[in-house]
Amino acid sequence: MDKNIINNFWQKFLKSTNRDGSTKYYDCFYFSIEELADELLQLVLSGKKTATTSNFLSYGADELPKVGNLSIVLDSKENPHCVIETKAVTILPFKEITYDICKREGEDDTLESWQKNHWFFFTEDGKEDGYEFTEDSLVVFEDFEVIYNV
Questions:
Q1: pLDDT score at 112
Q2: Which of 54, 78, 120, 143 has the fewest CB atoms within 10 Å, measured from its CB?
Q3: Per residue in 90-107, pLDDT tens?
Q4: Is the whole model's pTM more than 0.90, yes or no?
Q5: Is 83 within 8 Å of 69 (Cβ atoms)?
């Protein structure tokens, strides 16, 4: 990731939104894995994707997203495209996600499809990080809004 490109993008955002120059961003990332990053970015930019889900265990105790956090969203080549603001954070067991919740991610047409795709991602993530992901495992569901894009 080119820190100069990210910093320049962030400074343009701060200036164009009249924010204090000392404002920091919470995260700078692309959604999911590199192969899906551009597709998911387009869903975000089109307004279809307004939420994301992550594994609770992937965060440290003081790293959980909070309402008001600002994050930079990248494409698969790590170029910045937009800034999102966290609007709501819900922590619940994987098995309690409903279609009314997950449809805000804009990726799946059914709860079953969402469960299958996320189950694969979270169980693989767990294997890499040394824990077992189960239906009772907590997930962090984050609603967001695009507040700046180029």
A1: 96
A2: 120
A3: 999 999 999 999 999 999
A4: yes
A5: no
Number of Cβ atoms within 10 Å of the Cβ of 142 = 25
What are the boundaries of each domain within the chain?
Answer: 3-149
The architecture CATH gives domain 3-149: Roll (3.10)
How many whole angstroms separate alpha carbon 30 and alpha carbon 8?
18
CB 60 within 8 A of CB 53: no
Picking from 53, 67, 46, the residue whose alpha carbon sits closest to that of residue 98 is: 53
Q: H or E segment at 146? A: strand 138-149
Structure-token pair, residue 26: 């919470």
Tally: H helices and E strands in the chain: 4, 5
Give Cα separations from 78 to 15, 73, 74, 116, 146 (angstroms): 22, 9, 5, 27, 18
Phi, psi of 56 (to 5 degrees): -55, -40
Amino acid of residue 71: S
